[in-house]
Design a protein that fits this description.
There is one protein chain. The chain is mainly α. The chain has 13 helices and no strands. The two termini are 36 Å apart. The relative contact order is 0.10. Bound molecules: fe (ii) ion. Fe (ii) ion is lined by residues 69-70, 91-92, 123-124.
Length: 259
Amino acid sequence: MNSQFAADINDWFNSHVDTILPDTVRTFPEIESKLEHIKNVISYCRILGKNLDWSENNIQIAETIGLLHDVGRFTQFIKYHTIIDADSVNHAKLAFSIVNKSGILAPLPFPDRTIILEGIRYHNDKKFGNKVHPESLPFIKLIRDADKLDKLRVAKVAVQEHLNNSPNLQLTLFTDGTVNPKALSQLKRCQTVSKKYIRSELDFRLLQLSLIFDIQYAVTYRIIAESNIVGQLIAILPDEKEIRKTVNKVTKFFNEKIS
Ligand SMILES: [Fe+2]
């Protein structure tokens, strides 16, 4: 991939956003947060690629996936007035179809084009393993990690702003300080907490904490450890027996990953 192509993709992205979004919608928090998220995911793709000693070409492919992975969010929001997939569409499938139909990747050779399309399509799908070309696997793992690093960055900002001052944009949450036992039980089993179990602000913090169970690269764990977000999320949980037991499991899991 040459730098001219990277610039062309960038231009395409900007004009796509301009075409889809009226000026009045561009400043909606859902949209602003997604634009910021995309920018950050691109830089996490580069950071991870560098740490993994990837070639400049592969880093540029990863950055392109970062740029395009959430491009479906804008059409999703305009069409359904939400960025919650469960209430609308799978935004990764939508992004795949938008990019595929645009023909913008046509100048790229195989496997680069396939890698980018599969990176977009499976960035939010845990079960990507058997469905993709082997060449795509390292890139899907990388975009999934870069995506989570930015979600954890958002978590850190929210924790620092003392939770309720920074309402989550995607979910309507009760802030009654309770924890859904089903969310807690998933966390205890070292599973990613399902969005359907999110009822309170604290459940959402459990979900953010549970992102660590689906990290692909050791270097990503190191970056998470440096940010200290795991400790900060744990520190805001209520001091209750069941929560303490769960936190011990999470801490053990995380310490094993970073040791
Ligand atoms: Fe996404």
